Amino acid sequence: MSEVALPPLSPAPTAAQRVDGHFGELMQGRLGPGGPLALISLPCPALSVTVGGQDAALLGPRRVQALCAALGLAVPGALPALSATMPPGGGAGSSTAALVALARWLGFDGPPEVLARACVLAEGASDPLMLPRSERLLFAPREGRVIEALPPLPRFEVLGGFLGEGQRTRAEDQDFPDIADLVARWRLGPDLPGMAALTSESAARTLALRGPAGDPTAALAGRLGAEGWLIAHTGSARGLIFAPGRVPPGAEHSLRAAGFTQLLRFAGGGA
């Protein structure tokens, strides 16, 4: 049953909070057949949730109450209005970003690890949006904990968008491929071609196991000379990985022709 949204407050009584989303994952899967689900997030400053917007439906009262209970915060009488620049179910972190923005709006300024666990208690899963440089962390999204720190990434550029139907994360969903071998290679600090190959392999394994069939992203990467490609392992975000400054002219047209919407381009990696 869907939650009934609390009425929005307008204007918000405290300073606005903006929380950046992410653009899917550089990789995601199980650490061995019986291991935990783990991911490496791709931070994306082009996507965000802001307190003080127009959409109060991003959060419902059950999740708000659970978040406040976990953090020892008073439950607000009404929710602040929220605005998201990413589509629901896109795999860009709108739900986690909304929880983080609300917690900060309510005055939480404690450790980000505490906030990550609170987000899991509120909705059963969390993206590591509250953690700095999350692309350098192997994160357990169903537990809200950092498994280990990882090497810095080479610089790269992403051109992507959203393709097809959105897909919301279900906390009980653990049906992901084994990526323990990919993580072992990632720990060695690969260069850009090596990193992009690992990211592409993680995406391909997930699509082979979970679908949808006929995804055009790999073919686009090959045709446009990308180093590799990435996906939201739950969601519709899809992206091509290029060396900085190497996105070819007309690449955006190719993505639109393949059905991509809400195109975006941003930089990642770097020490």
Characterization of the model:
It is a single chain. The protein has 271 residues and is α+β, with helices and mostly antiparallel strands. It has two domains: 8-148, Ribosomal Protein S5, domain 2 (2-Layer Sandwich); 151-268, GHMP kinase, C-terminal domain (Alpha-Beta Plaits). The protein contains seven helices and eleven strands. The strands form four sheets. It has a four-stranded antiparallel beta sheet with strand order 9-10-8-11. Helix 1 packs antiparallel against helix 3 (112-123). The longest helix has 19 residues, at 192-210. It is globular. The protein starts with 7 loop residues before the first strand and ends with a strand.
Assign a percent range to the helix content: 25-40%
| Domains, number | 2
Q: Uncertain spans, ≥5 residues at pLDDT below 50?
A: 1-15
Apparent shape:
globular
Quote the CATH topology of the largest domain. Answer: Ribosomal Protein S5, domain 2
Q: Approximately how much beta-strand content do the residues carry?
A: 25-35%
State the helix count: 7
Instruction: Name the helix and strand elements from N-terminus to C-terminus, one letter apiece.
Output: EEEHEEHHEEEHHHEEHE
What is the C-alpha radius of gyration, as a whole number of Å? 18 Å
Question: What is the CATH C-level name of the largest domain?
Answer: Alpha Beta
Q: What CATH architecture label of the largest domain applies?
A: 2-Layer Sandwich
Mean pLDDT across every amino acid position: 91
Give the N-to-C terminal Cα separation.
45 Å
Q: What can be said about the biggest beta sheet?
A: 4 strands, antiparallel
Structural class: alpha+beta
